[in-house]
Amino acid sequence: MAGPGVFTLLCGLLAATLVRATLKPPVVLNLRAEVIREKLTQALEAHGATAVLQQLPLHSAVREKPAGVLSSLVDTVLRNIVWLKVTSASILQLQVHTSANAQELVVKIPMDMVAGFNTPLVKTIVQLHLESEAQATVQLQTGASGPTRLVLRDCATSPGSLRISLLHKVSFLVNPLANMVMKLLVPALPKLVKSQLCPVIELAFNDMYAELLEIIRVPVSLGPERLEFDVLSPAIQDNAVQFNLGARLLDSEGKVTKWFNNSAASLTMPSPNSAPFSLVVRQDVVNAAVAALLPTEELVILLDYVLPELARELKSSIRVINEKAADQLGPTQIVKIVTQDTPELLLSHCSAKVAQQIVLDLFPTSEAYRPFFTLGIEASSEAQFYAEGDRLMLNLNELRSERIHLMNWDINRFEPEVLKNITTDILISVLLPNENGKLRPGIPVRMVKALGFEAAACSLTKDALVITPASSQPGCLSPC
């Protein structure tokens, strides 16, 4: 019977396993099969896959006598062929889809070729139409020491895909020769695809994968700071490649100030849709980005010069509290606004808001050392996300003072609610435009154009920001 120590150990291991099972990545990038298809198509073009097909050594390949074919018969055929080669070739639209077990992606590369051979028996070139399909699988490879990555394996001719036919009718004299050439090509062509084209396909896939990793790692500029992503682990599911990403925030000198990795923080993934890609950013990462754009600051204004109407309203409100203090307010009265800590972004299904802690001081004149009072204000603003091209934009609207506290006073003590409306108006007129000015440049999401799309769109879940191509979801909408 196991002792209590063993039981405790087993419980600890089980608890640790459960914790690991519930950890969520801070950022998830989903690339659907069509994105992989387009990127692999571009990589194949860059590596000259079509040129490889046009240079397939058909003549030398058919000289290798397949089993079951009489050597003398092959020699007779080959003596009547001057040359045999591909005259034109093209790669048709690739197909990428999840395998039957949903653990791999199946890549099919259709090929269309015209081959010709010359024979002394006729003056014209005999043309053959060759159709075939290379097939490979994309799998996850976990190295002994390196990270898990995607690799391309098992490249070969797709079974049953090879079709060879005559493009034009030939004379009865050449017809037996053409039939024999086609029979010789049936075993020869798959071998050529395996030896000549498959290495190019694998090289193109590796380059495509390296390019995707580079796209993922492009820093996101947040003013002097920046946000960087890196792959924690890839996965294949729902006809898509899912990259679970880690994130880190760096200051202007490149020093990491905050890490984001797998954690128990919730991350609600959007329902599967037809978006070619989606970038799902957890709330704490978005919050850090907003905080980087809106650092703590101190604003000092001569209220009577800048906002005279609000200065008069403030004086009237203070007169209700203390007439003598109101009379001491001069034309150089100063309002100092200090944002405490950094703003906190709160997401929900249908909206988002930014909460801030603000300290407001009122000095009767520019020469005064002590403020009339100091207020602590808990304020919130509606946060509106939207996209312009490949930039994510954020604008703050409708600032509200949720709670207001009297922290210090140099006049008689009063209920701070008396000043709630006027201080809110001052914040709307001073703080809100200042913060929106800092947010106006937006956040460049270069990943959008790097993946082949012109513009982005965005939406919200209860705990994440979701970026997709604009064609799939115009505007910045919530799922509600």
Folded structure, characterized:
There is one protein chain. The chain has helices spanning 4-22, 33-46, 49-54, 58-62, 71-79, 175-217, 283-293, 303-306, 308-321, 323-328, 420-439, 447-450, and strands at 27-32, 83-91, 95-98, 105-118, 126-141, 149-157, 163-166, 220-222, 225-237, 240-250, 256-260, 277-282, 298-302, 334-347, 352-363, 373-388, 391-409, 443-444, 456-460, 464-469, 476-477. It is an alpha+beta fold and 480 residues long. The protein has two domains: 34-216, Bactericidal permeability-increasing protein, domain 1 (Super Roll), CATH 3.15.10.10; 266-480, Bactericidal permeability-increasing protein, domain 2 (Super Roll). The strands form three sheets. Strands 1, 8, 9, 10, 11, 12, 19, 20 and 21 form a nine-stranded mixed beta sheet that branches. Strands 2, 3, 4, 5, 6 and 7 form a six-stranded antiparallel beta sheet that branches. A six-stranded antiparallel beta sheet has the order 13-14-15-16-17-18. Strand 4 (105-118) and strand 5 (126-141) form a beta hairpin. Residues 6-21 have low confidence and may be disordered. Keywords: Signal. Residues 36-254 form the Lipid-binding serum glycoprotein N-terminal domain. InterPro entries: Bactericidal_perm-incr_a/b_dom, Bpifb1, Lipid-bd_serum_glycop_N.
